[in-house]
Design brief:
Number of helices: 3
Oligomer: single chain
Strand order of the largest sheet: 1-2-3-5-4
Helix content: 25-40%
Order of helices and strands: HEEEHEEH
Strand content: 15-25%
Largest sheet: 5 strands, antiparallel
Structural class: alpha+beta
């Protein structure tokens, strides 16, 4: 698989995507950017393309879980398009996070204006309290 994840993570992702009637296999992987401090890859599978991010030995195991919760909260607000969280590592497994693959694009005319309006709408969402339900990483 070359630039893909370690075999243990690949097998865990295949289990997460599979069900008893339809096993899913990883058919290819290529390194992509966007992981900041973690390796990332575009995974090709029998079920489509995904973005996979995984951690090495120095990554706090709870970091990718916190990222998944944050992405879900952004998605729940419904203002800015974020990739859907497809699956993530179980407790005790090496940390990994599987997201929907979104094709990069140029955005076209008005993209920055639209993004600014979406971010402003996102910031209008409020709560009765300040902060998140759980500690996070910045």
């Amino acid at each position: 698989m070359g630039a893909g994840p370690p075999d243990r993570i690949r097998r865990a992702v295949e289990r997460a995507l599979s069900d008893p009637t339809r096993p899913v296999g990883v058919t290819g992987a290529r390194a992509v950017g966007g992981g900041c401090i973690s390796p990332t890859a575009r995974l090709e599978t029998d079920a489509g393309s995904y973005f996979l991010k995984w951690g090495g030995p120095d990554l706090p195991p709870e970091l990718l879980g916190a990222e998944a919760r944050g992405l879900q909260e952004l998605a729940d607000a419904g203002e800015v398009r974020v990739p859907a969280v497809v699956a993530r590592s179980a407790s005790g497994d090496p940390p990994w996070l599987l997201l929907e693959w979104l094709e990069p694009g140029s955005g076209g005319p008005g993209a920055w204006r639209r993004l600014g309006a979406e971010l402003a709408a996102l910031h209008r969402h409020g709560d009765d309290r300040f902060g998140a339900d759980a500690d996070n990483f910045i």
